[in-house]
Amino acid sequence: MRSEVRLSATVSVTSATFVVVLTAACHGPPDEKLKPLDAGSPATPATAIASLDAATKPALPVWPPPPDGGRADLRAFCSDVYSADNARMMQKCAPKDLQVTQGMERAAANLCIDDTHSAVLHGRATFDADAAKHCVQMLQDTPLSRTSDSDTLFAHYPCDSVLLGQQAEGQPCLFSVECKQGLACEGYAIGVDGVCKKPPKVGEACIIQRFGNILNVQAVEPHHPACAAGAWCDGNRCEPRIAAGRPCKDSGSCAGGLSCVTGKCGKRAADGAACAATSDCTFGSFCDHGAEAGGGACTPRRTSGAECTAQEQCKGRCDMKDAVDAGGGVFIGHCGDVCGSG
């Protein structure tokens, strides 16, 4: 498993390629690392292969198969998909912000390769080159807004169909995307295969979903659920999903489309409604407690120039470079525009 990855950028602006999802610290899957001279490894130098005897020279597989046209391979896809909105970003971003954004794009592309390469190379998943082309084209044509902090392009059609698991029930797997639709990988560990299984029912131990940076839970759960329909994983067992208006402690426990808002399952609160935390509010707003120590109200994120004390309050960034000490450990900065965030 790769070491924990942290990127320090603090922008909250959303781009079509969802690069900012990488600001969260994640753990990658226990994928197999290929040695430099493994057959077909992109890390294998052509000169090294040419120097080998015929008896030891590796047989290079055709991987992945060519598409109808356009850039075909997985590495090209990972590069293209995270730079799909470069033309828009070049028009919106200040030079410094563009440099940060493009650096995050390169990091995202590398994580995309890490999360997917081994499964395809070892035949446990297939790469759909046509879906990949359509995914890149969609992102080039459409400013796709994120709907949550954990949203990723792999949760959206046709990008969710680029990598297709091939392992049937009972076959080995290293993480769930290697399994066929509807199955999840149970029991894998670092360097140790698990087994593709049907999702367990209510009351049974759930299949803990461990995914990488790009193929996160939100992206893969619809295709490889930890529990059967109508149930959710509380970290140990599959429990029934909670209906609207019933008490809850976690948004994952609520029935489809609902969140845990001020302790009950329901729709996220609209602007002006009461809230206890920003997670109670619709995405793009924050819970403004004002000068009160108790409850707050959902409020649209602030535009450039407005005062701020926390990143979640701004559409772009909360710039604390010239922050003023307001006392009591509170420092007041100002919201700054990031790539047209406002």
| Poorly predicted runs | 1-17, 19-70
Basic shape: globular
Give helix % range.
10-25%
> What pattern of helices and strands is seen along the backbone?
HHHHEHEEEEHEEEEEEEEEE
Radius of gyration: 22 Å
* Distance N to C terminus: 39 Å
Quantity of strands, as a count: 15
Question: What is the arithmetic mean of pLDDT?
Answer: 78
Query: Into which percentage range does the β-strand content fall?
Result: 15-25%
Total number of helical segments? Answer: 6
Largest beta-sheet characterization: 3 strands, antiparallel
Assign the structural class, choosing from mainly alpha, mainly beta, alpha/beta, alpha+beta, or little secondary structure.
alpha+beta
Strand order of the largest sheet: 3-5-4
What's the number of structural domains?
A: 3
